[in-house]
What does this fold into?
Amino acid sequence: MKNIWTIARRDFMAYFTSPLAYILISLLLLITGYMFSQIVFGFIQHMMTYQQFNMGKPVSITEGVIQPLFGSINTILLFIFPMITMRLIAEERKNETLPLILTSPITLMQFILGKFLSSVLLISVMLALTLVYPIVLQVYGNPEWGPIVGGYLGTLLMVSCYLAIGLFFSAMTENQLIAGALTFGASLLFWIINWAAQSVDSTTGAFLNYMSLISHYQTFGTGLIVSSDVFFFLSFIAVGIYLTHQVLDSYRWR
Amino acid sequence: MIHASNLTKRYADRTAIDGLNFEVKKGEIVGFLGPNGAGKSTTMKILTGYMPATEGTVTVAGYDVFESPLEVKRSVGYLPETPPVYKEMTVRDYLDFAARLHGVEKQGLRAAIDRAIEQTHLGEVQGRLIGNLSKGYRQRVGLAQALVHNPPVLILDEPTVGLDPKQIIEIRNLIRGLASERTVILSTHILPEVQATCSRVIVINQGRIVAQDSLDRLTARLQQGKTFNLMVRNRSSQALEVLRSIPGIKSVAEAPQASELVTIEVRPEATDIRDQIIETAVKQQMGVLEFFAEKLSLEDVFLQLTTTEETV
Ligand SMILES: Nc1ncnc2c1ncn2[C@@H]1O[C@H](COP(=O)(O)OP(=O)(O)O)[C@@H](O)[C@H]1O
Ligand SMILES: [Mg+2]
It folds into this structure.
């Protein structure tokens, strides 16, 4: 555990020695901030129309604000995270620092877990900063905290699956851009894989639905934490980390 | 301290090292000497547990590299050909990381880093970013990294490559200074480097060990003088007598194994007298068929080595 932390700590600090982390954090806050204001504005208008003219249906803050807010955070993270993960291992290979790691008394798995942990930590920092939105809601209204907590947990788990995909591709090549592009492609695929569920036979459709990350996220947004979904996310991460290990281990045998 | 037997490494398309056997005792400084592509780096990567061997075994400090890699890695400090440094870190932070990686305990960290910085004379630059340092400093940072956990075994792959003469002398002094308490293996393709630092040399060429001995004895072997083989149709004793009279010739003998062969030994101090030998043989109407030098494989290797210390 100490070894994992040694790796994660260095890597996490490395994010902040380049402007990249600051740029990504600013982007996330700017775009989600803009979306949040639009969501809230739309919600208020809707409620005012309902109250004044009794038109439409009443919408809860959860449905009207919180769920769309997490939807936008998730979408933006999907675009941002490849830039976080692409350097993880590719950069070590390019700069020839892997010999230091691989001749240190730590295991390859500890190294990979440390790398993974550092990216999870950075995403956690980003998510923590988006807490300003629920806090604003708390000041001006009375949101339900169940869906908020669920939304954060679900987002963290789902994005961690992306990070595992990114880690894997970062181990495949020493070219960071290729790693980033493959990561983005693969995670987009896992995001929309269930779109085809209707047009194929029911078994395949069920499988595609099961493999879709977003379908496992849905219930978190309502404040429910379903253990089978948590299990799916954790298994997905475990498979990603295992494959990364296999890829790196195979290099040593060439 | 280090024991390698039948060490072999095959890459996809070539055999890099082929059945190496050697031993390094505690406290020795051993030089791996060989031209580029000889297999020095490959051997070191296997010794450090960076890469598994295709065949053969290595034990370092009593542990098998393949079976107990973590124990071996704890006992070894390794400087690869390219110093494995993170350019965006300061020297001090980097050494802190390297020390933690090698299991230096928290309370000992500060002292370990200070000692490594002092040994490699990095005091003035310890707060600078490694990316902003010159090549010589980076090399020293790499060396400090190998030293920071105070390992009993040091494995240094071409530690002075790319340094200026002053830095080279510094690094060599440093390595010699470390030696009394440690076992050191360093690789080089520069002959004077082993002269300056090593107590023993393992000469390797094309993946095989050509010789291992003290440098003095190796050079003595090279300077034993040359042997030439002369193939003739007619080796009359009179002609041989004339050959013997050429100054610089030590002996001329009829080789028993072939009726046409004459072996000629030349004194080491003699200047090149090949012209005279051939002229004499022709004048004596010996009917020269062939004339060639008998080569020591060691000499082959030495010819490919860098023998002068140019500023790189
Ligand atoms: N990763 C590799 N894949 C294939 N061949 C390699 C690899 N690394 C080294 N070699 C080959 O193995 C031989 C020995 O290389 P190396 O150990 O680097 O020699 P040295 O360090 O003595 O210059 C060379 O012929 C080199 O081309
Ligand atoms: Mg080499």
Q: What stands out?
A: Residues 88 and 170 of chain A are 6 Å apart (CA to CA). The pocket of adenosine-5'-diphosphate (ligand 1) is lined by residues B 11, 14, 16, 34, 36-42 (CB under 6 Å). The longest helix of chain A spans residues 19-53.
